[in-house]
Each structure stands twice: as C-alpha cells, then as structure tokens.
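Instructor's aside before we start: the two examples that follow are unrelated to each other. I chose them only because their records fit on one page, so don't look for a connection. First example below.
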Amino acid sequence: MAVVPVERLEGVTRERFLRDIYPRRKPVVLKGMELGTCTTKWTVDYLSQAEGSKEVKIHVSAVPQMDFLSKNFVYRTLPFDAFVRRAAEVKHKEYFLSEDEKYYLRSVGEDARKDIADISKQFPVLAQDVQIPEYFEKEQFFSSVFRISSAGLQLWTHYDVMDNFLIQVTGKKRVVLYSPRDAPYLYLSGTKSEVLDVDNPDLEKYPLFVKAKRYQCFLEAGDILFIPALWFHNVISEEFGVALNVFWKHLPAESYDKTDTYGNKDPTAASRALQILDRALKTLEELPEEYRDFYARRMVLRIQQKAYRDDYG
C-alpha cells in the first residue's frame, strides 16, 4: 500500500494556521512550536514526584495492540507515581496480567460520565509546565487530555468529532491516518475500525481495506499533529511517552451532543439522520427481496446525489 507522508511545517503562526492550513481540513505536523518547559522537565522522576500518589484509572493489556471492540484489556487503578514508573519499564517485577504487559492512561474528568478531561484540573502541577498553542477561540475549547503510553502500545483506529492537536511532549509516536472519505473501506463499528493491524491486515476478512489511502507521520518530542475532525487515526508509541490532546469545537457548540465528555459522539443532526435511516431500512423489510434491493439502491443513489462532495481529499 502506498503511503502519503503528512506535511511537516516549521514555526507556523496562529495567523498562518487559520488562514492557510485550517481551511484545508487535512492533517499537518507543526514543528518548532513553543510548548513551555514540559518537553525538557517531564522525566519519569519529575512526573512521579510532581503529581505524587493520587490514584489513576488505567488500561492494562497483555498484548501491544489494544482493541476497544473486543476489549482485550482490563481497567486497573494505581497511584500515579507507581503507574509512571511501571509504564516506563519494559519488564515488570510487579504486574496485573504478565511481566511485559502494556499500560495506557487517558485522563478523564472527576466524574467521567459528566466531566470533561482538563489537565489544569486533573494534573494542575504538570499543567503549569505546558503552553498550549491557542490556535482557536477560547470558547471553542473542549478538553485537554493527558496521555501516557508504554513503549510499543498501539491504539485502535478511530475518529473523533472535534478537531484536535496531538502534542507529543516526550517520546516518539507513529501515526497512521485515513481520510473521512475512505470510511467505506475501514469496516466501521461505531467510531472505530475493525481492522486492528493496519500494517498486516487480514485481507480475506477485510478485502476493501486496500482501497484506503494511508497517510503517515512520525512524531518526536515537541511535535504537534493537527488531526481534523472525522479523520481516522491509529497510533503506536515507539517509546514510552507523554502526550497531550487538545480538542476544540469546529462546529457551533449547539451541534454537539451535550452528554459527550470524550468528544466522540456524533453531532446531534448526524445521530438523528442515522436513526431515520435505520427506520427507513426497517420499512424496506416489508417488501420482497427483489423490490427491497431495487429501492435500497435508489436510496443510495439519492444519498450520493444529495449529500456527497466531489471536491474532497
């Protein structure tokens, strides 16, 4: 499969980002950005003492490829300092599942069902070390998600419904992305792709996956990846690393589901449209197969004519 490298740009100002980059709605790596002292301060020792022994809920997996659909991981709780030290190890003396298990922290609000992740609230000491590039209006801000990953950990392919900056503070990541236009080839279950191994996909099970155009970049400490809403992404931590995701609202605030604390519930109009489609498909079941097939194809054509863009990615 051909790989399209994600464009890398040095020292992009807010003005240039908003004028030249943001309207294109394509991923881009921003280099040489001012992020504060976090890129040099956030060693394992500093992280451990900065936020101490407060309890954090983490994902623990016996295998590097985490799969949200089959839930091949468990949730456990550890003191933050103990978690950081374990995540930085390759082999563990103390463990939950196996001596080479992988760890992943995705920070959440105080009550994950009601509160959004905000580094200034959940990790206030560390938040003082970070300068987040404010390339969006203050009222557009949604969340700042603090992440720590073991070396080798791979997260499932998914999309988010808000724009985001993936700020790689320490360590290295490889990110593979797919355009929203390639959704038909990604075998979706909700917001997630069933194709777990994007490097060696099972093409007997997922034959259309070869049609998806693969974009790819490697992030080093201090790099920021702009991921536009609806772009699918699959992330491997090549080293133990710390990152911060900053999500903001690209659409008017009222477009989003008010119960969404993760930034991954479809906009309310999209949810309503999908529910209406489900009802239409249920109605088609009243027809014999030959008629059902014919009218389903007519529905697809109408959707393509009315809703598809032809100037897209």
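Example two begins here.
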Amino acid sequence: MASSSSPKEIIKEFPFFRVYNDGCLELFRPPSVKIPPFDDPISGVRSKDVVISSQPTVSAHIVIPKVTNPDKQKFPLLLYMHGGGFCTLSAFAKPYHDFCNTISSQANAIVVSEEYRLFPDRPIPACYEDSWAALKWVASHVSGNGPDPWLNHHADLGRVFFGGDSAGGNIAHTLAFRVGSIGLPGVNLVGVTMVHPFFGGTEDDEMWLYMCASNDGPQDPRMKPHAEDLARLGCERVLIFVAERDYLCPAGKNYYEELKKSGWKGRVELVEHLDEKHVFYLRNPTCTNALELTNKFISFIKQNNGSLRNSIESKY
C-alpha cells in the first residue's frame, strides 16, 4: 500500500542551511568544536570563560594580557562578535580563541569575545539583544564593583572598542548605533572594526529575512543601515576590511561610502585585500595578508585618536 505522506522536499536553500517541506532545517556546517580556556606561558596572556547572563543565556570568552602591575594597570577593552551567518561558529572555537589571544597580547587589551545565541534555536534578533546584554555586563564594571575581577581591576572603560567579522561585523554596527542613540553611562566607545561585514545588497539578504521573522523587509535598518542611523554611530573611528574575492566585498564598500555621506563626524578607513576570500585571515592566519590585517587591527586599538583620516587603501 502506498504511503499517503508527502515526500520530503527542499523548499528553500540558503548559503548556510536548507529548509524542508516538513519544517525541518539542515545546517551545512557541524557545530563548532569548543576548546577550554588556557594560559599562554610565552605571551603571558590568560583566558577564561564566563556566564554573562542566564536570562537570556549569554556567555563569553575573556582574554587578558600579561599584568605587570596588579594595582594600577588598566587596559582598553575590545568586545568581539564572531561570524558564521548568524547560525554557526562560536566564540569558543579555536580560530577565534587564537585570534583574540593575538589581539590581547599585541594590542595590550582585554578581549571579551561574546557567545550570542544562534538561529534556528534563537532566531534574529536574539543575536543583537544578546550582544547588548554583553555590553551592559561590561558596563556594570564601571565603578569597579562588577561581577568579574579582571574587568574590575584592569578594564579601562574609557577606551572601549567593538569588533566583529561577517555577521559579527553587522552586530558591531548595530551596537555602535544603539550606543550613539541611547548612550551607555561610563562607557566611551572609541572605535569599531568590521572585518568582511554582512550588510544588505547581496545573495544573503533573503537568508537574513528568513532568519528574522520580525523584519521590516529589504530596507530593514539592521541589514541596510539608513543614513540617519549611520550618522548616530556612537564612536570616533571605524575601520572596515574587505576582501576582493568575497561576495560581501561590495556591501562593505557601500557601507564605507554611505557612512562618509551620512553626516557622521568620525573618521573611517577602508582596507581591501586583493585576491583574498571571505575571512581568509582565520583560515590561513600566517599568510602575509592575514598578518597585515591583524597588525592593522592591533594598531587601530593602540593608535592615538587623531591619527586616522578618512581613507581607502588596497593590499596585495
């Protein structure tokens, strides 16, 4: 007797997952392998994992550089959001662990690498709300009586930076806009670094709209920031990296041009690496362009506020 049930069919397919007619969803990448924190005896960098919030469930990987003066030493703080199309990867995965260790050691900065909730378990906008919860947790240390002793004793919240790659670059933008719109007492956001960021105008638009049921359509400002939103970015400096062979390259360049025209009063720089693909620096961290990108990221944190002009450059 023939079955009366319909055969399983693919009804939608996106770069990161496919959807079947029975409502099931198949992610193309397996879950990230998460590694435990450890101390680096060579650089002196230490790391640990912390729970930021139970409602919502948000955690983070924290890295602190070598402390030579336990009583007085203060470091700038980088809040970092990982990539992965809003549905894969982890702050606890080895590529991000290694990258954040390098940034912490060489920029002499505390890095809080946030683990936000992912689609499909937690659809967008959970990633944005979780990142705001992480930022508020960081801000709770402004008087030196927050829940984490490393931040209480050594974080200079007058020198805060946001950073992120791909989806994380998009999240970094939304955080900067929110800080500029409503503020965050005690926190001074100096700069934002976006590496190969996702914004609207690419093949990923439909995927983002599917992951965010409460969207405002293709012009949703979280996907395609409006000029008035760009003008309210709550930071002094922005650094954008794009890769020539990355399909998100036009989106990053467009963000750069729109930010310059928006009336925002800060300084922005665009760096393009020629003949490179999306997040190449995580896949091949020792190649020449990856080292250049990492060093530029580090210099952005270390440089004086007045040293960056609106500019664009290409790297071979």
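The mean pLDDT is 94.
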